[in-house]
C-alpha cells in the first residue's frame, strides 16, 4: 500500500526522474511483469494514466526478485545494474500480517531490510536510502508520536534466535 502511494506520487510529481526500478516477486502464479500491469490498472494510478500518459512504459521497470530470498532473489545482471545506476532507494517491502509466525515476520521485515542495506552499501551513486516501515508499528501506543522508540529487543539477537531455534520452541517463546 505505501509503495503504491509512493510510486503514484513519484510518477505524477517528479517528472524529471529517469527510471524507477521495482523489485517484484512472482505471487500466486502471477509473474512480476503481469503483477506490474495489474498494479498500474488499479484506481490508485487513474490520475497518472490521465495526466501523464506513457509514464508507466517510459519510467517504470520491474526487476524480478524476492526480499524473502538470500540476495533478494536478484540475478547477478540486475544486481550489477542496481549497483551502477541507483541514486535513491525506497525500501517499503514488509509483511503487514499480524499472524505471521515470528520466523516469517523476521525474515520478511528484518532480514530483507538488512539485505537491502547491504546492497545499498555497494551502490556507486547512492544519495539516499529511505526505509518505510509498516504503518502498524507502535500500534499499542496512544498517541503514536514522531519520535524513535526504543526497541523491545536487540535486532541482532532476534535474528539469531529466529535463525537457530526450532519452530516449536520459537512459537512458545514468541509471545514473550
UniProtKB/TrEMBL annotation:
Query: Which Gene Ontology cellular component terms are annotated?
Result: peroxisome
Q: Which GO terms describe its molecular function?
A: alcohol-forming long-chain fatty acyl-CoA reductase activity; alcohol-forming very long-chain fatty acyl-CoA reductase activity
Which keywords label this protein? Lipid biosynthesis, Lipid metabolism, NADP, Oxidoreductase
Q: Give the highest taxon in the source lineage.
A: Eukaryota
Q: Write down the chemical reaction(s) this protein catalyses.
A: a long-chain fatty acyl-CoA + 2 NADPH + 2 H(+) = a long-chain primary fatty alcohol + 2 NADP(+) + CoA
Q: Which residues form the Thioester reductase (TE) domain?
A: 1-153
**Under which EC number(s) is this enzyme classified?**
1.2.1.84
Q: Top enzyme class of this protein? A: oxidoreductase
**Gene Ontology BP term (one):** long-chain fatty-acyl-CoA metabolic process
- Which ranges of the sequence are coiled-coil? none
**Pfam families in alphabetical order:** NAD_binding_4
Q: Which InterPro entries match?
A: FAR, FAR_NAD-bd, NAD(P)-bd_dom_sf
Q: Which family does it belong to?
A: Belongs to the fatty acyl-CoA reductase family.
Summary of the function given for this chain in its UniProt record: Catalyzes the reduction of fatty acyl-CoA to fatty alcohols.
Protein name per its UniProtKB record: Fatty acyl-CoA reductase
Species of the source = Pararge aegeria aegeria
Gene for this protein? Answer: jg1314
Amino acid at each position: 500500500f505505501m509503495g503504491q502511494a509512493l510510486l503514484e506520487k513519484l510518477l505524477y510529481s517528479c517528472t524529471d526522474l529517469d527510471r524507477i526500478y521495482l523489485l517484484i516477486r512472482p505471487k500466486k502464479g502471477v509473474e512480476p511483469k503481469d503483477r506490474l500491469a495489474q498494479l498500474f490498472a488499479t484506481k490508485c494510478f487513474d490520475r497518472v494514466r490521465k495526466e501523464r500518459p506513457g509514464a508507466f512504459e517510459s519510467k517504470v521497470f520491474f526487476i524480478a526478485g524476492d526480499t524473502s530470498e538470500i540476495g533478494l532473489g536478484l540475478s547477478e545482471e540486475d544486481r550489477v545494474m542496481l549497483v551502477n545506476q541507483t541514486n535513491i532507494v525506497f525500501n517499503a517491502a514488509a509483511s503487514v500480517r499480524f499472524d505471521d509466525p515470528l520466523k516469517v515476520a523476521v525474515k520478511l521485515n528484518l532480514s530483507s531490510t538488512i539485505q537491502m542495506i547491504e546492497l545499498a552499501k555497494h551502490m556507486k551513486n547512492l544519495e539516499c536510502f529511505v526505509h518505510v516501515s509498516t504503518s502498524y508499528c507502535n500500534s499499542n501506543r496512544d498517541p503514536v508520536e514522531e519520535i524513535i522508540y526504543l526497541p523491545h529487543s536487540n535486532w541482532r539477537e532476534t535474528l539469531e534466535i529466529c535463525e537457530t531455534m526450532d519452530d516449536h520452541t520459537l512459537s512458545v517463546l514468541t509471545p514473550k
